[in-house]
Amino acid sequence: MENNRNNKIVKYRRPLNVNIGMIIFTVILIYIIICVFSYFTQKHIEGHQVKMGSLSSNNIYKGIALRDEEIVTSTQAGYVNYYAREGERVGVGNLVYTLDQSGRLADYMNAESTGTTLSSSDLTELKTEILGFVNNFDPRYFNSVYDFKYNVKGTVLKLANAGILENIDKINSAGLSELISFCNAPTTGIVIYSVDGYEDLKLEQVTKDHFDTKNYEKTQLISNELVEAGQPVYKVSTNEDWSIVIQTDFDKAQELTEAEFVKVKFLKNQDTSWGEVSTYTNADGDIFVKLTFTNSMVTFCTDRFIDIELILEEETGLKIPNSSIVEKEFFIVPKEYVTMGGNGNNYGVMKETYTEEGAATTEFVETTIYGETETEYYLDDMVLRIGDDIIKPESSEKYTLSKRGSLKGVYNINKGYADFKQINILYQNEEYSIVKSNTQYGLNVYDYIVLDATTVMDDELVYE
User: Fold this and answer.
1) 203 burial class (0-12, 13-18, 19+ CB within 10 angstroms)?
2) Which of 58, 360, 398, 448 has the largest CB neighbor count within 10 A?
3) Is 86 within 8 Å of 197 (Cβ atoms)?
4) What is the CA radius of gyration of the chain?
5) Is 60 helix (H, G, I), strand (E, B) or coil?
């Protein structure tokens, strides 16, 4: 028995070993879980700082240029050679082109001008042409490369004009004079070496199909080409007054019509000019606006389609997102029933109440003014109810609360709770509104407002 007691095994219990690291980890884990749970269960209210800004709508249009253009046709068949530069003003009787029935004039002039050198003024003119193209080139308008090509060619032909006039005797001796017709300008204007079928287009004839550039065809008239009798050889723009026609909607057309004159920026060279506004609506209901100019025609004489931007007056004020705007109802009370009182000498009304004995008495009820007209205030409805009677100060006249009206506004959160502030919208687009600043019951620059007005209630705490 004694041996059995000695052989009994007693299990050793280890002492509890508290690991401080495990405790800290557990506490942090619990804290993270609580924070994550709180984040996904609480209401998220995002603020937005009010800043000054402006809104501008998209006022860029592709327009069709309308000019007084006269097409000059050939009186007989032959090879045409131009001697007036495109875009140059010619007077009546100035040489514009020659018509060579033999086709030998160009070769003869090239042979005679082998040793010809350009003067310093001639070189300056060519350099000016090239530098102007380089400085204004825009890859989006690659067709300007071709215009530049023909402009340079026209400049060279103009410089060669003096050569042909000086060599008339040689031409006569070569037996070419009888086969060459010297064609002078029948009228004064700007020479253009292209036709496109839009020369006689008027505002009343314009349709939306005219703006489809895929179907637009422009025929460039090239020197030393064979032409038939009656075929166009050039056209002349006879009037400095010209127009650009754009297609708009009704609201924009009405806005432009009321303005009468609109400042226009030409995107090709960033120049600006004022255009006089007129409108036309065709049988299909399409609305077109014509902008008439008294200058700059020669700059765009070779362009039929011109991209422009309308420089309209932009509204400037406090810029707020439309998601912040809410509409709220208020009691409308005559101003003479609103007074000042209470401990803070704040605005309020004298509300009629009754004692337990049924005796009528008055109680000053402080309320906030959110807006006003010339004769009435918009009062908060949190402390007042429909049917309440208010007393006119220093009088026994009563007014029963019943009239209500709504105001547009936002929730200001400068003080940590949602406080409604009236706004006066000056201009609005799909995303933002411009509101008047520094109004008596409105916003000021750098105020904080609720970004999404649907996420809060009146006087709800935002920051705790």
Assistant:
1) middle
2) 448
3) no
4) 42
5) strand
DSSP 328: E
Contact call for residues 183 and 76 (beta carbons, < 8 A): no
SS3 of residue 363 by DSSP: strand
**What is this structure's pTM?**
0.55
Instruction: Classify the C-alpha dihedral 434-440-442-448 as positive or negative.
Output: positive
Q: What is the dihedral of CA 320, 324, 330, 332, to 10 degrees?
A: 20
What's the pLDDT tens digit per position in 332-366? 999 999 998 877 678 899 999 888 877 888 889 88
* Residue 388: C-alpha distances to residues 128, 243, 375, 393, 416 (Å): 83, 66, 20, 16, 31
Mean pLDDT over 60-75 rounds to 91
At 327, the pLDDT band (50, 70, 90 cuts) reads very high
Distance CA 417, CA 411 (A): 9
Question: Is 158's pLDDT higher than 60?
Answer: no
CA 86 remoteness from chain centre:
34
Tell me the HSE value of 33 on the side-chain side, using a 13 A CA sphere. 6
User: Which range, 113-127, 145-159, 351-365, has the best average confidence (pLDDT)?
Assistant: 351-365
- The closest of 347, 372, 345 to 442, measured between CA atoms, is 372
Residue 64 has φ and ψ, to the nearest 5°, of -105, 125
Query: Is residue 42's pLDDT more than 70?
Result: no
Taking residues 320-342, what's their average pLDDT?
A: 91
Contacts of 431 (CB under 8 A, 6+ apart): 321, 322
User: How is residue 184 written in tokens?
Assistant: 């002078």
Residue 164 has pLDDT above 70, yes or no: no
| 327 bridge partner residues | 408
Cα 374 to Cα 162, 332, 338, 339, 369, distances in angstroms: 79, 12, 14, 16, 14
